[in-house]
Amino acid sequence: MAFNPVVDEEKCQGCGECVDVCPVEVFELQGEKSVPVNAEECLGCESCVEVCEPGAITVEET
Known about the structure:
It is built from 2 helices and 4 strands, in the order βαββαβ. By secondary structure, the chain is of the alpha+beta class. The chain has a single domain, classed as Alpha-Beta Plaits (2-Layer Sandwich), CATH 3.30.70. The strands form 2 sheets. It has a two-stranded antiparallel ribbon. Strands 2-3 form a two-stranded antiparallel ribbon. A hairpin with a 2-residue loop joins β2 (27-30) and β3 (33-36). It is globular.
């Protein structure tokens, strides 16, 4: 099973918590927003979802 992390740019505040917590470095800050640059590496652990206070991140099963 594969996973696809999605960031809602309107909700993202660019705090970088998801960048710090992701064990496989899926996210990167670009222009003060989080971008899933290595989405194919996502393990589906949802650590990023848990630390995202504005609720900007979802992880979809593909």
